[in-house]
Amino acid sequence: xxxxxxxxxxxxxxxxxxxxxxxxxxxxxxxxxxxxxxxxxxxxxxxxxxxxxxxxxxxxxxxxxxxxxxxxxxxxxxxxxxxxxxxxxxxxxxxxxxxxxxxxxxxxxxxxxxxxxxxxxxxxxxxxxxxxxxxxxxxxxxxxxxxxxxxxxxxxxxxxxxxxxxxxxxxxxxxxxxxxxxxxxxxxxxxxxxxxxxxxxxxxxxxxxxxxxxxxxxxxxxxxxxxxxxxxxxxxxxxxxxxxxxxxxxxxxxxxxxxxxxxxxxxxxxxxxxxxxxxxxxxxxxxxxxxxxxxxxxxxxxxxxxxxxxxxxxxxxxxxxxxxxxxxxxxxxxxxxxxxxxxxxxxxxxxxxxxxxxxxxxxxxxxxxxxxxxxxxxxxxxxxxxxxxxxxxxxxxxxxxxxxxxxxxx
Length: 410
Prior knowledge:
Number of helices: 6
Oligomer: single chain
Structural class: alpha+beta
Low-confidence stretches: none
Strand order of the largest sheet: 22-26-23-25-24-27
Helix content: 10-25%
Largest sheet: 6 strands, mixed, barrel
């Protein structure tokens, strides 16, 4: 019995030693594991539009990023305002990217830290309107080297049919603008700008609606004056053989209206209902004695004209009234005075001969005493002073004549 008791005691001691050892190692393992877990903590990393969590024992943000396999450059920025060492939080990486902004064939490079296209444009000071167009969506991620094309809308106004409306366009022509406005042009309509002209910001295009109407009116036909030479009457005298009378005609016009307002008219038909009766006047051709006596001055030629030259001319008439001269002072360019009612001084105005020249017009001598409009610069064109007044100027009218140069200058 004694031997068995001792054996039991020895086995019990061995068992207790084993249990004690096991408990000791378990205690050490548990304490070590607890200590290790107490050092680890969770950190959220936000890199652009990506976000993920890591568990770490590192305390420095850059070491936490290295441990997570994330590389940052010297241009990148870290936002650690939401991070607490050994406790966790958020580490935000603001990546530096170069973007190229293209506007109307002009490209500019910018450095940005924004994550999306919309935020990047706002960062560099560009506002994108609702009518502007981009080659990327505003919420698309920014990448280094990205080329962003921005087409800015232009605003143009269409004035048509009594209304003015503004439209936004991303380029185009006036024709495109009218299509956008829903304006159609008729066959004769036109616009203030060419249809193929480029639309620019602030452009204002007016549409002109053209309408044609026909109208027939009764009009007088002015009679003409027929001159009959009479050798029994002296030059410078005349007498009426037959009085003239105006005729009548029904004249049809094509009338143009632009935007409802009269613009112009064109004759498209004429029906004479009463023929005019032409006036007949006898004109004296008898040359009195000494009529051609003109004091010579020794000048035989001037500016291509020679004494004795005969020129085919055309005449008109003027008087001393303010309507003919612009004033009623009665002083000619040569300084000679004229007035209506005076004895006929036989003066003419022309610009192609020197003042003081004497010309014979159909047998009557006249002195070049005055100048006139540009029409009198044409060779052979003269305006004859008529002291009988304005009504006589109209009555005598205009006509062709033969001019002989008698003297050049005073």
